[in-house]
Amino acid sequence: MQRKTFLTLTSCIAVAIGTFVLVAPEVMIENVKSAVPSESANVMARTVGILLITVGILDFLVRNHEDSPTLRAVLIANLVLQIGIMPIDPMAYASGVYKTLASWLPNSILHLMLAAGFVYYLSLQRHFR
Question: Are 63 and 7 in contact (CB under 8 A)?
């Protein structure tokens, strides 16, 4: 897969999930995460939603860029995001906040795959290894 395609895909995933969480946080919390919804959780979910939309837009805007220090910074930031998010859902499950494997396992697999993609494309940057 070309980097442009990867960044387009990551953009679409981030914008789609971010929009869903922004518009219907209670659905995400209760039906997808199998957690107890609350007004505080809805506010935090909406915050995450807009952050995901923003990252998705950034990835979309840089998808055609050539290797550069700026593109490398965007790829690193995306990698840090994926690695940082990865333990959150399993920890929520382990502590009893999430009740089912389906509430965290698909996301964890997605974050692992995306992190691997960002590592791969970082390793291909010609001028900045």
Answer: yes
Ranges of each domain in the chain: 3-123
Sign of the dihedral through C-alpha 25, 82, 84, 93: positive
Residue 89: count other Cβ atoms within 10 Å of its Cβ: 19
- pLDDT band, very low/low/confident/very high, at 127 (cuts 50, 70, 90): low
Residue 40's φ and ψ, nearest 5 degrees, are: -65, -45
Q: Which residues 6+ apart lie within 8 Å of 110 measured at CB?
A: 13
Q: What is the pLDDT of residues 22-76, one digit of tens each?
A: 999 999 999 989 898 899 999 999 999 999 999 999 999 999 999 999 999 999 9
